Amino acid sequence: MDHLGAMLKDHLHVIDPSFRRYCLLNSYMETLWTDGRWTEGPVYFGDSRGLLFSDIPNNRIMRYDETTGVTSVFRQPSNNSNGHTRDRQGRLVSCEHQARRVTRTNHDGTITVIADAYRGKRLNSPNDVVVSSDGAVWFTDPTYGIDGQYEGDKSPSEIGASNVYRVDPSSGEVAIVADDFVQPNGLAFSADEKTLYIVDTGATHVEDGPRHIRAFSVDGSTLSGGEVYSVCDVGLYDGFRLDIDGNIWTSAGDGVHCIAPGGNLIGKILVPETVANVCFGGVKRNRLYMCGTTGLFSAYVGTQGLPYF
Ligand code: MG
């Protein structure tokens, strides 16, 4: 199996001894695919043993097949899709830069628009998305997909701000839930859905700007709090997932960082490329998929992702 790289232990940076429990001594850093330009948005389908992920500048969604090891095109053009998740019915939910919308791919393959505007103004370029257990769709809307021609179409922001939104599952109404971000990005709930973690990658647009994860208290359809939970020490956090122990496994400039409950960085998986997003997969949810700049990587770790997407 020539995709097997160095042993995972050779890619680990243990900061706190508590990280060692997650380090499998006989696990590999696997390079699964290397033909992307900027990979993002991994989402796992245990029912079809595959991983979908975006190759944003190449305007396509790729699919890695866990049973064959083959990566192939799932959808092209993809409207420069970015983040993906699955709703509680298992359907694919996608952020699309170019079309400036969030969509759902139905079980028969047809596509339904979930959100493309706020109060009559087009969204910027939805970046990442999660669905809560009540069916509400929460997504971030920074400007990366309209800043230039590489990851979408260069366009002005109609809204004039980069907000976090919630789409009501009953009415379909799009509401702002956070409006104090420079560039909101990845987001994920805690297991009990009482906390919503949201990244601000504002440092890309503001000198010495935010490069951190904030933690919000969730009360039904509203958020409160929003204190800084963890500051990235290399590059930027972008997309992330939580495991069953409450750790955040997040992308960063030097690979993947593991942040323990409370916010302490306990260890890193060092990846040869800047990592943009991660998700757990494998039949036991213990395989960490990592979207690097050009490549898709994976490693089995000593924990499991939360049983949602
Ligand atoms: Mg992102």
User: What is the strand arrangement across the widest sheet?
Assistant: 1-3-28-27-26
| Number of structural domains | 1
Provide the helix percentage: under 10%
Under the CATH scheme, the architecture is 6 Propeller
Give the strand content: over 45%
Chemical compounds bound to the protein: magnesium ion
- The class by helix and strand makeup works out as mainly beta
Distance between the termini: 29 Å
Number of strands: 28
Could you name the CATH topology?
Neuraminidase
Give the averaged pLDDT, no decimals: 96
Class in CATH?
A: Mainly Beta
Low-pLDDT stretches: none
**Count of discrete alpha- or pi-helical segments spanning 4 or more residues:** 0
Biggest sheet architecture: 5 strands, antiparallel
The CATH homologous superfamily: TolB, C-terminal domain
